Amino acid sequence: VQLQASGGGLVQAGGSLRLSCAASGSTFYNDIMGWFRQAPGKEREFVSAIRWSGRNIYYTDYAGSVKGRFFISRDNAKKTLYLQMNSLKPEDTAVYYCAAEPVGGYDSMRGSYRWWGQGTQVTVSS
To answer: Tens of pLDDT along 40-60?
Structure first.
């Protein structure tokens, strides 16, 4: 599985960005996908994840720090994962990574993942 993240950039506080993650080498539609971020001097942290719950229903999960501001989605036809980030804050500044398939399986969406993208830089100025 290969993941290619894009969409990062420099934005002022209160602004928005949409990250994309193009996947290849997997069926994608039933893959559990996640977004993580790593700020300078800090450990990588969970941001959001999405998994298929049957038919057209997807279960989503968000870190408390981004809930209500960030929204994860996917386009299975394009094999692309998205992260819409609104009301950005300077503390959202980080390298953002997309990931596929949690090592711990279905119940470990916030844990380590098997496949990782290369990361895209998001910088929010105050």
So the answer is: 999 999 999 999 887 888 899
